[in-house]
Design goal:
Blueprint (H helix, E strand, L loop, with lengths): L3 E6 L3 H12 L3 E7 L3 H11 L3 E3 L2 H5 L6 E4 L6 H10 L3 E5 L6 H13 L4 E4 L6 H11 L6 E9 L16 H21 L8 E8 L5 E10 L3 E8 L7 E6 L2 E5 L13 E8 L5 E6 L4 H11 L11 H18 L2
Parallel strand pairs: 1-2, 1-4, 2-3, 4-5, 5-6, 7-10
Antiparallel strand pairs: 7-11, 8-9, 9-10, 11-12, 12-13, 13-14
């Protein structure tokens, strides 16, 4: 397979994690980076030994040596730059959420289709062997009929973008998107459907002085009669976890793949407790870092234009769920 030459559009913390992943990948190389500041781009390029750096995103998109663009700007800028990348003929990996609305996401997808380029929302956790094994256990009936799922993802610190509505602030779109994605995945594995959406969405939130959801809880009614309880926020101290309850037992993931330490190659655990039985620890080995796996996944599926785990239909379904959750907490 020909190496995929990456251009990084933005040079923040998550871009650094992805750059390190590309360095460890089998099929990716770092070709260029762009930031709003030329000095920032130069410092980032020096840090990762990237050949080219630009002080304008437009210059990155004009580089003929760049095959694919990784977008990690603040959320509200994703749509604009994904469309411009597609129009420049570049393949696209865009950080989650793809956009801040379903309507804008549909425009991005239309641009990718019209310009015949690959497009994937960067939900890297979905590619982790832990999550794939969890879905397998559910689909094979390891805990019988799935009745409920409980998902939590939060942290207790706030960078400026999180409290600014203009920058897409709030916990629901920042980390709650993982909760909705995982809950929907459980329903998909249980019912055998490719893509599902909740039949009902309820929610409550603690809003800050800017009207941004800093702590949010959601309740979904999913296909298969599955109820999902979601908790997220950036001013909330709790243990991240996944629990799936069935008619014949339960599954517990104490350290979901989105936790920082799980992004590196290591063994994780899924604990299966059958009804009336003793817990069984299922160990799942990851031999590749999660961002390296993500970069290689894009390279592997370029010709398909979509990734099988993260299709465009999957992205739209998750965004519709997020919109409904945010509407529920704003009432």
């Amino acid at each position: 397979m020909k190496n995929l030459r990456w251009g990084l559009l933005a040079a923040g913390t998550i871009a650094a994690e992805f750059a390190a992943g590309v360095e460890e990948s089998k099929h990716g190389v770092l070709e260029a980076v762009a930031a709003r500041s030329g000095d920032r781009a130069a410092e980032f390029a020096s840090r990762f030994e990237i050949p080219k750096c630009y002080g304008a995103y437009e210059d990155l998109l004009a580089d003929p040596d760049v095959d694919a663009i990784y977008i990690s700007t603040p959320h509200p800028l994703h749509g604009e730059w994904a469309i411009r990348a597609a129009e420049a003929g570049k393949h696209i990996l865009c950080e989650k959420p793809l956009t801040m609305s379903v309507a804008e996401a549909e425009k991005v997808i239309d641009a990718a289709r019209a310009n015949d380029v690959f497009l994937m929302e960067a939900f890297m956790y979905r590619l982790h062997p832990q999550i794939r094994r969890l879905a397998e256990l559910i689909s094979c009936g390891a805990i019988g009929e799935v009745r409920a799922v409980d998902v939590a993802f939060s942290y207790n610190f706030a960078v400026p973008r999180l409290t600014d509505p203009a920058l897409g602030g709030g916990g629901i779109f920042d980390v709650g998107c993982y909760c909705t994605s995982l809950a929907r995945l459980v329903s998909q594995a249980a019912t055998g459907q490719d893509v599902v959406e909740p039949e009902e969405v309820l929610g409550m939130a603690r809003l800050d002085e800017n009207g941004v959801d800093e702590v949010a809880f959601g309740l979904l009614r999913l296909p298969g009669g599955i109820l999902a309880q979601l908790a997220c926020g950036f001013r909330l101290t709790q243990d991240d976890h996944i629990r799936v309850y069935g008619s014949e037992g339960q599954l517990y993931v104490p350290k979901p793949a989105w936790i920082h330490e799980m992004r590196k190659p290591k063994t994780s655990q899924i604990i299966l407790t059958p009804e009336g039985g003793e817990p069984e620890v299922i160990e799942v080995e990851a031999t590749q870092g999660l961002f390296a796996r993500e970069a290689d996944h894009v390279a592997t599926h370029l010709e398909d234009r979509q990734a099988p785990e993260l299709t465009w239909a999957e992205t739209l379904a998750n965004l519709r769920t997020l919109e409904r959750w945010r509407e529920a907490v704003a009432r």
